[in-house]
Design a protein that fits this description.
This protein is 48% helix and 18% strand. Strands 2-1-3-4-5 form a 5-stranded parallel β-sheet, sandwiched between helices. The protein has 166 residues and is α/β, with parallel strands linked by helices. The chain has 2 domains: 33 residues; 130 residues, 3-Layer(aba) Sandwich (Rossmann fold).
Length: 166
C-alpha cells in the first residue's frame, strides 16, 4: 500500500512540475514519501546535469540497502536562494553544496544555513583544483566533513557520502 501511495505521489509531483508548481509545494509533497530508513540528502548545484546525475546515482537500485544499511532520498536545487526559502532545520542528514555558483556561492549559502541549523552536515563540491587545508583555514565551517571533486565516479560518490553519514 505504501509503495503504491509513494508512486502515486511521485507521479503527481512529476505532473505538477510540468505545470509550474513551486519548489516549496513539490518539497512538501515529496516529504510525505520519506521514511526513517532513508537518509535525506540535499544537492545544491547550479548545474542541473550534476543534480540530476547525482540524484539518479543515489536513488538507484544499484545501491544495496544491505551493503550500507540505508537508502537515500535526494532533494535537489539549482538555485541557492530558492533552497534557502524551502530549507527546514533538522530535516536533512547531509547537504552537498557546490562551491562555485553564480549569485550566491557555496560558502555563503552554508553560512546562512548554519545560522538556522547548527547541526548541519555539509560536503562541498567543486570541479576545480582545491587546496583543502587552505580552504579550511579561510572558511572554518565546522560542519564541513568532506570535499567532493567533480567529476567523481558513482562508487566514489556513494562511498564518500556513506562515510560522512556513519
Amino acid at each position: 500500500m505504501l509503495i503504491v501511495l509513494e508512486l502515486a505521489i511521485h507521479s503527481t509531483v512529476l505532473e505538477l512540475g510540468k505545470i509550474g508548481m513551486t519548489q516549496k509545494v513539490k518539497h512538501e509533497i515529496t516529504k510525505l514519501t520519506s521514511g526513517s530508513e532513508y537518509k535525506k540528502i540535499a544537492i545544491i548545484d547550479d548545474d542541473n546535469d550534476i543534480t540530476t546525475t547525482f540524484r539518479t546515482i543515489l536513488e538507484s537500485n544499484l545501491i544495496s540497502m544491505s551493503e550500507i544499511g540505508f537508502k537515500f532520498k535526494v532533494y535537489t536545487s539549482n538555485n541557492p536562494e530558492q533552497f534557502l526559502d524551502v530549507f527546514e532545520p533538522g530535516f536533512y542528514d547531509l547537504l552537498l553544496i557546490d562551491i562555485n555558483m553564480p549569485g550566491m556561492d557555496g560558502f555563503e549559502i552554508s553560512r546562512r544555513l548554519l545560522e538556522v541549523d547548527l547541526n548541519l552536515r555539509i560536503c562541498f563540491m567543486t570541479a576545480g583544483e582545491i587546496n583543502y587545508r587552505a580552504l579550511r583555514e579561510i572558511h572554518s565551517i565546522r560542519s564541513v566533513g568532506c570535499y567532493i571533486t567533480k567529476p567523481i565516479s558513482a562508487n566514489d560518490l556513494i562511498n564518500k557520502i556513506r562515510m560522512e553519514l556513519e
